[in-house]
Amino acid sequence: MKVFCGRANPTTGSVEWLAEDENYDYHQEIARSCYADMLHDKDRNLKYYQGIRAAVSRVKERGEKAIVLDIGTGTGLLSMMAVTAGADFCYAIEVFTPMAIAAVKIVEKNGFSDKIKVINKHSTEVTVGPDGDMQCRANILITELFDTELIGEGALPSYEHAHKYLVQEGCEAVPHRARVYAQLVESKRMWSWNKLFPVHVQAEDVEKIIVFPSEIENCPGVPSVYDIQLNQVPRSDFTVLSDVMTMFSVDFSKQVNSSSTYYTAKLDPIKSGMAQVILSWWDVDMDPSGMIKCTMAPYWVQPTSNDVQWRDHWMQCVYFLPNEEPVLQGENVYLTAYRDEYSVWYKLQKARNEEDKKDAYVGSPLCSCQAHLLWNRPRFGELNDQNRTNQYIQALMTVLEKDSICLCISDGSLLPLLAQYLGAEQVFTVENSAVSHCLMEKIFKANHVGDKIKIIEKRPELLTASDLEDKKVSVLIGEPFFTTSLLPWHNLYFLYARTAVAAHLTNGVTVLPQSASLYMMVVEFKDLWRIRSPCGTCEGFDVHIMDDMIKNSLNFRESKEAEPHPLWEYPCKSLSDPQEVMTFDFRLTVPQQTLSTDGSVNLLRTGKSHGAVLWMEYHLTADISVSTGLVQISDEKGSCQWNPHCKQAVYFFSSALEPETLTDLPSAITLFLKTVLIFLNLNETFRKIWL
């Protein structure tokens, strides 16, 4: 059965109605899940197994039957561990129906059907009693309900309900407890992900500075945590201002209270600096003694770098303080962690007396300036990148004349300000949304050019001559950047917009960027490959059914598509040189004919060909280009440095090549790409990459 789904095409800007299989959403959910990543997390699996064995042993030593409740069972792995450890019976709860069906099959295949009952419900709907889902309350509670922030997947309300209705008082719990840690740091790089810095514009012999409204400077930002791979942030990018502090802990073996609350800890600055960012992570004790510990601590906290387990389902947290504040070494400072059922946020306070230390509960921060609603954290970093801005300044200086009439097509861009500062006669800018219109209007007014730059809140194809005051555009500019873009080529919407406004351009119009090239490179990932790799056997249990289920869903569509990843967080080495695949000329309108390319990629280094990385490079002028992908290959081993402000597209090969020596390498990977530019759905384009 097919159903019609409306889907926005970021590249064309249009809504397309597609006939999708009725199971499309469910396949997407499985394909994009973290199940494979979790099954490959050996540290997590081993620690859970050790904790479960210890919990079952403690119950048996009391002369009791071991009855297990496993909430969020997934594959049924933890329940099978419990039975193997000697549990008498397990109730395995899984709310996601396809996963529950798979768990039943996996449990059966491993021979545990007589001791594990899979219940396809949310744990809050499970009943206990002779006619209920569970015959009796459990005396061992096993869960894996955690995310990078610990509580973001609703762990606290699930535990609260389970202790009230599903488990015995004083039950054993695996994990037994969790602790949340915090460390205060100063970091210009991380702070640039949340606040806007002044932008310096060198125009001939005069320097002008773009400033931002005070409401942006004073805005606390958005409440959501920024979860990243902190292990990829070098120590040179931040200064530690405090020791690691335990902010709060949760004992999962006792009644849990999910109500909003806060925790305050005295912080002793070990160095003077600007308090800007809280770095946070958690660990769990799998047993009451704390001997079996699983930690998310970053590399500078762990005894040796070899102790750091790579995982993508649990990372580390970056929290931004509402405002930066100077702290002095040795002064009294208090850090407060606030939480509700699903999220955490922080506030720093300098206490002068006992009353000041008593801080009432403060609700989560809300963006009041609109900038944090329009731009995500990487976009803030991009706007704060002065080197990148200088490239646009240099390019604009080569194309602008005193009589230039400029039109900017990009979402929430500073290019109109740059063009005005650099001497354009008139600047128009198109903003697709009321939010971006309002925000850019505030920024223009703060720089006293509100009457010199005209904002047009329309889609490009709806522009009229009167919108442009009956003037012809001589310089069309764009970064390009559009908030709807997910994959690198989605910003080729600029080509469609350029075509839509063709009637409003002069015959000799200058377009910046003048063109864009799509590049690709074959790489070997250090760890990212794990999210798409089958597991087979996990801690001695056969999970091939799960592998097949994920593979089936990937083959439904996802395995034929590239997916976005910020590769600065995921180390890889190049196995080929970067290769230009296709170029798009923005000086021309969208061609009506099909563009296609085919060829081969020569492999230069030994390694496993996990996939191809694709990115765009924008040629602002003939000799100035901006890359959204590879910055450089930094050594002979092929280590890659990537643009930290953009996500690159990764196409995972279905099977990795495993050459042993350079001479044994296949000479090339055959490549076939085809783009139908009449419709230019580039998300469809890179489905056709075959070994």
From TrEMBL:
Show the catalytic activity. Answer: L-arginyl-[protein] + S-adenosyl-L-methionine = N(omega)-methyl-L-arginyl-[protein] + S-adenosyl-L-homocysteine + H(+)
Query: Where do transmembrane segments lie in this chain?
Result: none
Q: Which GO terms describe its molecular function?
A: histone H4R3 methyltransferase activity; protein-arginine omega-N monomethyltransferase activity
EC class name: transferase
Record InterPro entries: Arg_MeTrfase (IPR025799), MeTrfase_PRMT7 (IPR014644), PRMT_dom (IPR055135), SAM-dependent_MTases_sf (IPR029063)
**What's this protein's name?**
Protein arginine N-methyltransferase
Report the function annotation for this chain.
Answer: Arginine methyltransferase that can both catalyze the formation of omega-N monomethylarginine (MMA) and symmetrical dimethylarginine (sDMA), with a preference for the formation of MMA. Specifically mediates the symmetrical dimethylation of arginine residues in the small nuclear ribonucleoproteins Sm D1 (SNRPD1) and Sm D3 (SNRPD3); such methylation being required for the assembly and biogenesis of snRNP core particles. Specifically mediates the symmetric dimethylation of histone H4 'Arg-3' to form H4R3me2s.
Q: Which domain of life is it from?
A: Eukaryota
Tell me the Gene Ontology biological-process terms attached to this UniProt entry.
cell differentiation; methylation; spliceosomal snRNP assembly
Chief localization class?
cytoplasm
Q: Which residues form the Protein arginine N-methyltransferase domain?
A: 176-349, 514-658
Where does it live in the cell? Answer: Cytoplasm, Cytosol; Nucleus
What are the protein's UniProt keywords? Chromatin regulator, Cytoplasm, Differentiation, Methyltransferase, Nucleus, Repeat, S-adenosyl-L-methionine, Transcription, Transcription regulation, Transferase
What SUPFAM superfamilies does this protein map onto? Answer: S-adenosyl-L-methionine-dependent methyltransferases
